[in-house]
Amino acid sequence: MSIDLATTPAANAETAAANAETAAAARAARNRRNAQKSTGPKTAAGKQRSRQNALTHGLSGVLLHRSEDQFAANQLHKELRRDYQPEGALEEHALERLTFHSIRLRSLEAQISTLEHLLIHDYTTEAEQAGDPLPEGLEMASTLALIRHDHPERFAAVDRLARYHRDHERDYRRTVELFVKLRKERRLAERDFRQAEREELKKQEDRHFANSAREQLKQVPALQNLSPTGLMEWQKYEQERLAKQNEATEPKPNQQQPETEA
Fold first, then answer.
1. Please, are residues 87 and 182 in contact by the beta-carbon 8 Å criterion?
2. How far apart are CA 175 and CA 93, in angstroms?
3. Where are the domains of the chain?
């Protein structure tokens, strides 16, 4: 049997292209059939209601939708700005995220507590109506454990809120770490800048003293015969003398300046 090497690759390419077109057509037909079975809202009222699904509790978005949460966020942000005084866009953004997660955590904790009290109230009422009341003085945690054991499905909303609480608490801690890191880096940069300024000022003073010492050496021939050690001692003495002279001439804070005659 002979194989035509010149025509075989072209035939394979045509076959692959035909198979791809057939698969695409079958996939499109399958998608159209599935679309006819959609269980989405059909009426105008149902479609309007479905648009608000993301705002049922407003806990998974990136905005605060409730007016009371927004008011609390504004107050907290003002207090944090007053206490920490952020500088730069990164610190400002970190402070905003810190405020956002703080308010979300407060709202979640309040909602979880409310749901747990409602669960306890309903469970206690049902037990009394069934003639098997709960023991008096039973702690809240124990009652919740009984409810979770007998009716775990009732904790669906609480567990969902607890999951959101864990997410916001994780993001809150990360934001705190970022904010602390940014402030630390800024303080280190400011410290390095001040240290560089002091070193530059010291270099200028040393250069000024060296220039003045060279001028004095030229004017006093006796100093030119000193040994290197003696010359270093003289320079040290001269530097201390100039420092004391400058300190004596500087006016003290409580010393009044003499009035100049007009």
1. no
2. 10
3. 60-194, 198-246
